[in-house]
Amino acid sequence: MGMIVALEVGPRGQLIDYLGLMAPGTPLRDGLERILRGRTGALVVMGNTREVQQISTGGFHLDVPYSPTALRELAKMDGAIILASDGSRIVGAGVHLMPDPSIDTVETGTRHRTADRVSRQTGVPVVSVSSSMSTISLYLDRHRHMVEHSDQILSRANQALQTLERYRARLWEVTNRLSALEVQDQVTVRDFALVAQRIEMVRRLEIELSGYVVELGTDGRLLTLQLHELGAGVDELRELLERDYRPQDPAVPFGFAGLAALSTTDLLDPLSVVRAVGFASNDHLDSRITTRGYRQMAQINRLPQAFGVRLIEHFGSLQALFAASSAELQEVDGVGESRARIIRDGLVRLAESAYTERMG
Q: Using one digit for the tens of pLDDT, what is the confidence trace for 116-137?
């Protein structure tokens, strides 16, 4: 018949938290893998709540340290194994669970039906280990999620990684085009929307890949490094764009956070994007907008960020900075002749880069 393991993990969290608890390399996953190799089968109820206790009867009180080998040995008994809230101790074994048989379930096997019903009745996650199918399933929020082998997760993660590489390359393309338009003072709301779309697409893929990292556990180290490399600079870009195009009225909500609520279809619609970001209803896609220049100043080498902010606050806009003479730049606190030369050279390079982008 197999066994049932009840693991109390505190308040209910997200799906990925529980998948992470059973990721390769974790003590719980080690114990479950041992059960699979022993062809015993199991149900794992992840939460020793009052609701779980109300449908529990019989069994043995143990209170011994948790170990994968102990879990495997106790799995040879019928009934449930109860773990402490942090999984560090086994507090009971051989406990019989009796969920309400009237609870609807589409599962057919006895073990899976029990897992589904216990999860629905108690609100806690339940893991079913099938010896015949050699699978581990997690029941959570009225859904069944497969706990996959690392090879399966890595296959999907590599596909997502390739997509992220393409999205990131496209993001820098539209960002470079935006830079050229900013220098020419030719930016429209549509141009901003194209960059915002790509930033949100990259963010969503990063979230998906972060989930794979958690699921992979110790097998996800390389994926972590690749994800970190591909995500470099995106958060800074997001922050600088918000500062550059935020409305003058500080009471107006503005930012990329609003894009998270958009469906995939809406994210592909530029007008939905600009409304979610916070542009006013009278700002149409062809409306002209002007950058303050924080992002452009951040691209000037050897110029500390504090000076870039100070320059923007003094001159008010990127266009005013382009028009400023060396003497006018030196009127800004902390900007001497040497630093003014660095700023002028940097602005010239930005203008040249914009010209190259436009000609390309």
A: 999 999 888 888 888 888 888 8
CATH class entry, domain 294-359: mainly alpha
pTM: 0.80
Rounded to an integer, what distance in angstroms lies between the CA atom of residue 113 and that of residue 105? 6
Radius of gyration, CA atoms only, the chain = 28
The tokens for 319 are 């266009």
- The torsion angles phi and psi of 85, rounded to 5 degrees, stand at -60, -35
Sequence-ordered list of residues with C-beta below 8 angstroms from that of 158, at least 6 positions apart, any chain: none
For residue 151, what are the contacts with CB-CB under 8 A and spacing of at least 6? none
Query: Mean pLDDT in the chain?
Result: 87
Q: Is 14 left (phi over 0), alpha (psi -120 to 50) or beta?
A: beta
Neighbours of 134 (CB within 10 A): 11
Where are the domains positioned within the chain?
3-147, 152-277, 294-359
Query: Domain 152-277 adopts which CATH fold?
Result: Ferritin (1.20.1260)
Is 108 exposed, middle or buried, given 0-12, 13-18 or 19+ CB atoms closer than 10 A?
A: exposed
